[in-house]
Amino acid sequence: MLEEKLSLERQRTAWIVLFTSFTVFVLLCISTPILINALLQNSTRLLDIWVQANQGTVGIDDRAGGRRAVIVGDAGQAMTPGEHVLTGNTATALIMVRLPESKQMVAAFQIYSNTDFHLLEAQTPRFSVSHHGRDLNVRLDTGRVRLNLVEDEERPSTILLMTPQGEVTISAPGQYAIVVTPEDTQVTVQEGMANITAEGDTMGLPRGARARIPTGGPPQGPLGTERNLIANGDFSRGREQWILNPWIVDLAAQPEGQVRTLDVGGEHRLNVARQGVGHAEVSLRQSINQDVSELTSLRLLMTFHILNQTLGVCGIKGSECPLFVRINYVDENGASNTWQQGFYAAGEVDPLQTPDSCITCAMVQGPHLRVPLAQGYFFEIADFREELARHGRVPPRLIESISLILSGHGFEVEVNDIALLAEE
Predict the structure, then answer these.
(1) What's the confidence (pLDDT) of residue 355?
(2) What residue numbers bound the domain in which 201 lies?
């Protein structure tokens, strides 16, 4: 009897071990692929965030309360989640978001003066098989930013921008402007689509619309907004809408340059390059012919890179800047006029050798602006009418055309985008 009882116990133990082993095996067979898939789907790594000073000195505050300075002309500095960018009265910055170990652009922020920009989260899936998108969470406590979200057919990106008044969710590629004050948050969609959330209400904001989030209140809109008078200003459709004028080359034996539209890290750019001796010039022009007499404001915005320049400043007459932007307009008295602004990245101003303005140009102009070589730069005229008034000129009634003029000896310039924004 005792032996029979022991035999039954051994059999029972054996069956328990067998069933337990089988159960563990089945669980491992089921859970291992699930765990591996979860790892592949959910593992992330940080996006590369790079800060460059556009004007003045820009501060980056870290988690520990330390501050780093970024000055114009420097290569820039990396930024990680938990840090924030501060710009003072005279400083502006560019924040570029790229894929890790890649030049592929995800988004770019133009940070204007008196802005406090916090980076909260910036991640992308680690593995290409992941179905998740890229997530970028930021907070804007005060100030103004302009955002360009780049289109990527392989993997979408979502930007959550939080302000004291609410949240702005952006997942459609395009261009957006956000202004935050103690009184409200203003969101403008120039291209794309945004969702605005505050006080439990959510509102979709389409292209060409503006929304306002008052402090303590729900979103208001869509409201009237700025419209871009320039078509294809981001060159996403090549040179469509732009008239390319023939190259002007002073020396017959010298070459012309190249005018191309390139995809640089997912961002479309107009690229103009020339290597040679003696003067060469090319221009692109777009006809506008828009009445601007009753507008509330008229803003000019442009982002560009001067990648190379062999001629000092803009030449001995100040007429050979690697980049000019020129607006032809009719003023309120019916007279045709031209305004222009020149940009350069190399050389020192000498009134006798390299003047800081064009001495042969009979048009409205200010001193040429020096920008960092081979670094992105954004330029703005906050109100074109005030700019003309500063020169003692009558306000415009009609904008006839806008032109980009590229000139010098050897030069290479890339224009990311240009906009002339009219607000009714």
Answers:
(1) 93
(2) 44-223
Which residue, 98, 420, 62, 26, is CA-closest to 232?
A: 420
What average pLDDT does range 271-292 have in this prediction? 93
Q: Tokens in use for 82?
A: 């938990």
Q: Which amino acid is at 235?
A: F
For 88-234, where are the E strands, in sequence order?
92-98, 105-111, 115-125, 134-149, 157-162, 167-170, 174-180, 184-191, 194-198, 201-205, 209-214, 220-223, 226-228
What DSSP character marks residue 232?
A: T
Same domain assignment for residues 71 and 164: yes
The number of folded domains in the chain is: 2
Residue range 142-164: mean pLDDT, rounded = 88
Whether residues 280 and 355 share a domain: the answer is yes
Question: Is the same domain home to 100 and 210?
Answer: yes
Q: Cα separation of 112 and 110, whole Å?
A: 6
| Bridge partners (DSSP) listed for residue 71 | 57
Where is the domain boundary, 223, 258, 277? 223
Whether the predicted pLDDT of 164 surpasses 90: yes
One domain for residues 330 and 191: no
Query: Looking at the predicted structure, is the pLDDT value of residue 5 above 70?
Result: no
Give the pairing type, strands 194-198 and 44-46. Answer: unpaired
DSSP 250-301: SSTTS---EEEEEEETTEEEEEEEE--SS-EEEEEEEEEEEE-TT-SEEEEE
pTM metric for this prediction:
0.74
Tokens 């409205």 map to which residue? 364
